[in-house]
Design goal:
- The protein is of the alpha+beta class.
- It folds into two domains: 125 residues, Rossmann fold, CATH 3.40.50.10330; 155 residues, Tumour Suppressor Smad4.
- Helix content is 26%, strand content 39%.
- The strands form three sheets. Strands 5, 6, 7, 8, 9, 10, 13, 14, 15 and 16 form a ten-stranded antiparallel beta sheet that branches. It has a four-stranded parallel beta sheet with strand order 2-1-3-4.
- Strand 3, helix 3 and strand 4 form a beta-alpha-beta unit.
- Helix 2 packs parallel to helix 3, helix 6 packs across helix 8 and helix 7 packs across helix 8.
- The longest helix has 11 residues.
- The two termini are 24 Å apart.
- This is DAGKc domain-containing protein.
- Belongs to the diacylglycerol/lipid kinase family.
- One of its GO terms (molecular function) is ATP-dependent diacylglycerol kinase activity.
- Its cofactor is Mg(2+).
């Protein structure tokens, strides 16, 4: 069996840790090729060239994984290798959703006792995501996090950035359609579309959340000001809410029309758009996950 390792040195994948990971898993493979990312786009390009390998081992954070997913989705489905994820970033949200240890060597040790789990992929316009799509408060907060603060404080940095956003937060108008029917038309403070179960290292606490059911969780809120701050702090950004100001739906497809171009966050990567076409692609990728 052959494995390709994609390692991002800037996400904590330093030479010592890389060597320890290789030493931990080398007995499982007949051949291992290591490719290190040097610039944005490298991980996606390496992933697109990984069709000859059974396993694609990703050492990096959420940004590296996002690139890899978008590279793999350019390959025919039967040519995509199974992904072995070694968390080496700050949040590692999808690794947490997979119940992987966030300590890299511990995650590597589990390869010997892992099985391949199919996971759903979200198609968002012309790109792909695994974990979440955020508009409004969520997208603005993640963009505002200072990199040094993120590195030192992790999810606390996310909370601080979120609270800062309340000073500038204005509702925006959104129309959400599902199957040609309008399910919401009006102002919201944020829109969250989730496939994974963590946001900024914090569990979203949605009991129906699953990356294997062919559905995404769609949560939006009109709550502004102190009530929202209180809920965010008491729930630690959890989205499990009973208030009428918080709406939670499940969908396999949705179209989002925004009244003006907005910042969109897909798994921590940002772009601007006035319309989002979101489809769930069931079981498109497979990951090595711990056996229970």
């Amino acid at each position: 069996m052959r494995a390709l390792i994609i390692s991002n040195p800037t996400s904590g994948g330093n030479e010592t840790m890389l060597g320890e990971v290789v030493g931990t898993i080398e007995s499982l493979y007949d051949e291992i090729l290591i490719r290190k990312t040097l610039a944005q786009g490298d991980a996606g390009r390496f992933a697109e060239e990984s069709g000859a390998y059974e396993h694609l081992i990703v050492i990096g954070g959420d940004g590296t994984l996002h690139e890899v997913v978008n590279g793999l989705m350019k390959l025919p489905r039967d040519e995509r290798p199974t992904i072995g994820l070694i968390p080496a970033g700050t949040c590692n949200d999808f690794a947490r959703a997979l119940a992987l240890p966030v300590e890299p060597i511990e995650a590597a040790r589990l390869f010997k006792m892992s099985y391949a789990q199919s996971v759903d992929v979200m198609r968002v316009n012309e790109r792909y995501g695994l974990n979440f799509i955020g508009v409004g408060l969520i997208a603005d907060a993640s963009r505002q996090i200072d990199p040094l603060q993120k590195e030192s404080l992790g999810s606390i940095g996310y909370f601080l950035a979120t609270i800062r956003q309340f000073r500038e937060l204005d509702p925006f108008d959104v129309r959400i359609e599902h199957g040609g029917e309008v399910v919401h038309d009006g102002p919201v403070s944020f829109l969250y579309v989730g496939n994974g179960a963590y946001l900024g290292t914090v569990p979203t606490k949605l009991p129906t959340q699953s990356f294997t059911d062919g559905l995404v969780e769609v949560v939006h809120s009109s709550a502004i000001g102190f009530p929202m701050i209180r809920q965010l702090l008491t729930q630690q950004l959890g989205l499990e809410q009973s208030s009428q100001e918080w709406v939670h739906l499940q969908m396999s497809q949705l179209t989002v029309h925004l009244s003006e171009s907005q910042l969109i966050d897909v798994d921590g990567e940002h772009f601007e758009a006035e319309r989002l076409d979101v489809d769930v692609l069931p079981g498109e990728l497979s990951f090595l996950v711990p056996s229970h």
